[in-house]
Give the backbone structure.
Amino acid sequence: MKLMDNRDRVGSILILLFSFFYLRFIFEIPFDPTAGDAFFTPRTLPTGLAVLTIVCAFFQLFLPVKTGEELSLRKAVEGFEWMPMISLLLLMLVYSLSFNFFGFAVATFLFLLGGFSILGERRLKVSISVAGGLTLFMWGVLTQLFDLYLDSGSLYRLVLGGA
Amino acid sequence: MLEGILIGLNTAFTPINLAMVLLGCFAGTFIGMLPGLGPVSAIALMIPITYGLDPASGMILMAGVYYGAVFGGSTSAILINAPGVSGAVATAFDGHPMAKKGQAGKALAIAAYSSFVGGTVGAILLLGFVPILAKLSLSFRSADYFALMLFGCTAIAAFSGKGQVLKAVLMTLVGLMLATVGEDPSGIQRFTFGMPDLYDGISFLLLSMATFALAEALFVILRNEQTVDQPHSEGLSSDKLGSLKVSRDEVKDMAPTVGRSSLLGFFVGILPGAGATIASFLAYGMERNLAPKDKQEEFGKGSARGLAAPETANNAASTGSFVPLLTLGIPGSATTAVMLGALLSYGVQPGPRLYVDHPEVFWSVIMSMYVGNILLLVLNLPLIPYISKLLDIPKQLLTPIILFFSLIGVYLVSFNTVDLTMMVIIGTAALVFRILDYPLAPLLLGFILGGMMEDNLRRALIIWDGSWEFLWQRPITATIMVITIVTLLLPLMSSLKNKRKHVP
């Protein structure tokens, strides 16, 4: 599948798909009922952009291409370490979804601990001290110095019955 | 102009703003040293901190971070051959070989002095050019602004380098599309999918952190440049810096190089999309060609000229990139694009009116550059041995910390965890495009300029009663449109010609 091995073309396919998705939802944009026969509506610019992007993406897709190793997707990803990267992405997703439940302090501590472990830090003492220290430092700076409110989390409220 | 300089000096020399320059230079140097974070990420990380400050102080802090980061990127380029910023890649060509010869201290000193001269010359030239452009810009109307925004979008695509023009155009268009998410100027919801979190659109800080800080840090992990057992790739321990002294003969030898590279860097930096990276490579190439034969052979092996040229040029270009930002409201680089977004969030409209409406912001940024350059030299040079110890932090600890700061920076703007989830999704998409070698700076630029483009286009069409004739009937608009078309078509045609040549 030479098409899928060319980085430029894979990118243009992705942008093309995004543009079609974008174009589909242009029709969901309501018209301003007070605008009457306005020449420039909320749909005008999005439609122009979608059409232009589709045209440019097709150009990129169907123009004659340079072939060579520098454009090969397979060559580009050779030697990549996927597992740590995917694990970190999932960890960040879990962090964002669990932030309200665990609260800033617990969620951040667990995130840092998890991140260190994923990237290969095996010294538990070091991980706990750095994660704990940084979490405490940031909590102190944000809440005490900048007087910002950081949610303590639903878990805290569940366990301790706080507000 | 004299009045403006006095306003600028008055504002820049207040205790709080001097503290901002100091903090900015120091923070920027540290962040710029970390591979995976550059001036864009450094400034984006600062923005939540600046919300409590007035616009002049916020801009002074960010400007300090910018040239601090450019300087900091050179430190890791010289010490461990891992440029912290793309503008420092050319610095590593001669900086690291010099360090390996046991002259790391001298290399760092040359980098510091060259950066100082480049930045100072850039600031002097900025002072001269800015009033001229500012006067011209007062005659701008909505149609002209629209054409200017369009030029800004195409210029960065045009300067994206060989074979990248169409890709840069595509990414600019994606950025423009992302800018339409949320409420349009008439109050109609677009692409919000019924989610109240999207009513205000996507925050530019979220987009810039996701595309530059997050995606870059994850890309470094993917490539696994360092393992757990090897805290440094090649390079030397930060203990072996040696003397920081540069002899009088060496200064005399480098002086013409530094002079030429300052001018080249500044004028390249003015061009939207060009920036510090291109300036540093051009300066390196120019100096290698101009050097006498015996000196030419030293390039790539630890030549002082080879180090001084890119270092001078990248700092001068960083200053030059403020010209289009301050006078026309067009960011000259991805970094100034983030600053543009920051100015908008302060309620300050950058562009031709900035000179008139907010002279204290305008002039204090320029004057603070003089202060910043002096501080960078005086403070950072003695601190380099200590700052460079931070490079000893193992990657398995440093990377999650960088990711955490990126996430929390975005959270502190809106206190909404949906933004964190969006950041992860956008960061993943940005990483995919990074792997596919699609440039991300045009995406950010398109996003920043998109809203202003639509506003001005709408207004221009209202003024001209729905007619598009303003594109060729107004002289300023027509001139900018012609320049835009030429700027876009020339590299595109050259790129298409190259592609046809290589068809098997």
